[in-house]
Amino acid sequence: TAETGSPYRVVLLGANGVGKTAFASIFAGAADSMDSDECELCGGEKTVTLLDTWDTESDDEWAQERCMHTGDAYLLLYSITDRASFLRASELRIILRHFRPAQHTPIILVGNKCDLVRRREVSVSEGRACAAVFDCKFIETSAAMQHNVWEAFHGIVRQLRLRRDSK
Ligand code: GDP
User: Fold this and answer.
1) What ipTM did this prediction achieve?
2) Atom of ligand 1 nearest to the CA of 114
3) Nearest Cα residue to 15 out of 90, 72, 70, 71
4) Which residue in 8, 27, 89, 114 could disulfide with 78, CB within 3.0 to 4.6 Å?
């Protein structure tokens, strides 16, 4: 059944340096110390596997393709301090749409490093507008301050469950 079957695969996508590793290590650390109630909160025990396998600098197109195929849901990260990473997120969204044409593949656009207010290059409204164009949810986070990281994660799990329940 869906409950006991293979875990959901949530893939972290984004340019180098946006905070994918920082995100993944927060989840990895929490998963170790979590009791089953908290696990239930985040999708049920062992139902979510977070993949941080994307290397945008890689020339290995096949590996990139595989990444686009294997996810059940995607956290699409950019850094609010790096406009190039914001543009990269848009490109990745377009590539993703090509590989996952199904409307309901859950995606959340994540503007990370929102603690670095003085270095901001991408405004909140730009992020929100981009998410609206791409028809996905939007959230700003700080992996460094652990701000909104769980909200992003819960958001993606909620979408996965809605999709599962509507099947
Ligand atoms: P990746 O290449 O996407 O995996 O990015 P990393 O997780 O390795 O992060 C790149 C750098 O940004 C590291 O030095 C992190 O400590 C730092 N970093 C990640 N997230 C944040 C954040 O939310 N705020 C701040 N100030 N630094 C961050």
Assistant:
1) 0.99
2) 23
3) 90
4) 89
